[in-house]
Amino acid sequence: MKQKNLRKLKKIANFAKSSFTKYMINRSIIRGKVLQQLYAYEICKSANLELAKEAIITHFKPNLNTMEPQDPNRLEGLTKLTLLHFEEYIRTFIKNTNDDLPKEVLPCFERTLKNFNNDNSKDKLNILKILFQECEKIYNLYLFSLALLPKIGQILFEAKKIDTIKKNIFIQCIENHSELEQKIIKNQINLDESEIIYTSIITNLLNDEVYKMYVLAKSDSIDKEREFALYFLKTIVLKNESLLDFFDELDYNWSSNKVAIKDMAAGTIKAMKPNEQFELSPLSKNWDEDKVFLKSLFLTCINNNRESEEFITPHLINWELGRLVTIDAILIKMCLTEMIEFSNIPTKVSINEYLDISKKYSSEKSSKFINGVLDKISKELTESGKIKKSGRGLIDNR
Asked: What is the largest CA-CA distance in the chain?
C-alpha cells in the first residue's frame, strides 16, 4: 500500500512537469470559445426570425377595437405576401421592388426588418460581452483553486487543531502571496460561502491514505512537500464532487475549462520556490492582443456571413449550406474568415486549428468533410490572390 501511494504522489508530480504550460488561454482555446458564442448567436438569430414572423402575423390580425369593416381574406393575403417578402429578403438580401405590392406590405416589412436587425445587433454585442467574461472567468477559477488550499488548511486547524496542511511550505507561499490576495478581493472572489464544500474536502482528506502517510512521514524534504501540495490540489481538492458541482454552476463551460485550470494551478506550485513570492500565471501571453483577435474574429464572422456563404456554397458538392450541421458551417466560415482577414496567420495553421476543433465539437465524419471543403477553398483563394499574407503569415504558406 505504501509503495502504491508513493507511486501516486510521483505520478501527480510528473504530470505537473509534463503538462505545465505558461498560459491558460491560447489561440486554440479562443477559437473554441468564439465557435461556442457564434453558435449561441445563430440560436438567437433564429429566435429573432421567429419573433419577426410572429410580428407580421400579429400586425395583420383583425382589429377587434375598430368599427371599420375588415376583410379577413385580404388580411390573410397581406400576411402571406409580407411573410414571403421578408423570408425572401432574409435568404437573398434582395428587396422586392414590385410596384404592384399592396401599400400595406412594405411599411410592415421595413418595420419588421428594422426590429429584426436591431435585435440581432443587441444580441451580437451582448454575446461578445459574454465571450470576454467567459475567458476571464477561467482566471478567477484558477485564483479560486489556489486560494482554496490555505483556506482549507486554516479551517482544518481551527476545527480540529490539525496544522499539517497549514504548515506545508508551498501552501504557506500561497497564503502569504500579496498579489493573489489583492486579486481575490479585486475580482470579488468569495471564499466564505462554501462551508459544505470545505467540509466535504476535509472529510476526504482525513480518510486519504496518501495524506495519512504524509502526516506520519514528517519529512522536511522540499520535493516531498511539493509532491504533497500537488497531490492535495489535484486529487483531494480538484476531484471533490461538491467542488466540481460548484464550479459547474459558476462556469457552464467548466467541462472545457477544467483541464487548463488544473494544469495552470499545478504548474504554479511546480514553479514555486520556498519562502519567495511566486509569479501568478497570466491569463494569456498577451491578453490585450488576444482580446483584439477574439473580438475581430467574432465580429468579422458575423459581419461577413453573407459573403462567406456565397463563397462556400459552390464548394459543397451535392450539399446545400442550409443542410449542413450548424457547427460545421460555423467552423468553415471561421476558417475562411481567418484565411482572408488575418494576414499574420499562415493558412495551414488556420486549417489545422479548425480541423482539431472539429474533432472536439463535431464528428469524425464531419472533420473529414470540413477538411475537404477547406482544402478546395484555400486553393481557390490562393490562386485568385484573395489570400494575402504578411510577416508570420508567410510561414509554411506555400
From this structure: 95
Q: How far apart are CA 389 and CA 387, in angstroms?
A: 6
Residue listed under C-alpha cell 495519512 = 212
Residue 89 exposed, middle or buried by CB count within 10 Å (0-12, 13-18, 19+) = middle
What Å distances lie between residue 360 and 328, 344, 345, 347, CA to CA? 12, 25, 22, 21
How does 46-85 read in b/e, with b if 16+ C-beta sit within 10 Å?
Answer: eebbeebbebbeebbeeeeeeeeeeeeeebeebbebbbeb
Report how far residue 118's alpha carbon sits from residue 131's, in angstroms, rounded to the nearest whole number: 20
CA gap 79, 260 in Å, rounded: 52
Calpha distance 115→263 (Å, rounded): 46
Are 131 and 294 a contacting pair, CB within 8 Å? Answer: yes
Q: Is the model's pLDDT at 270 over the cut of 50?
A: yes
pTM tops 0.90: no
DSSP 253-296: THHHHHHHHHHHHHHHHHH--TTSPPPPPPSSTTHHHHHHHHHH
Residues 6 or more apart from 353 whose CB is under 8 A from it? 27, 28, 31, 335
Domains of the chain and CATH, by start: 2-38+137-271 (no CATH), 45-125 (no CATH), 304-379 (1.10.940.10)
Contacts of 198 (CB under 8 A, 6+ apart): 151, 152, 155
Lowest mean pLDDT, pick from 74-78, 253-257, 342-346 = 253-257
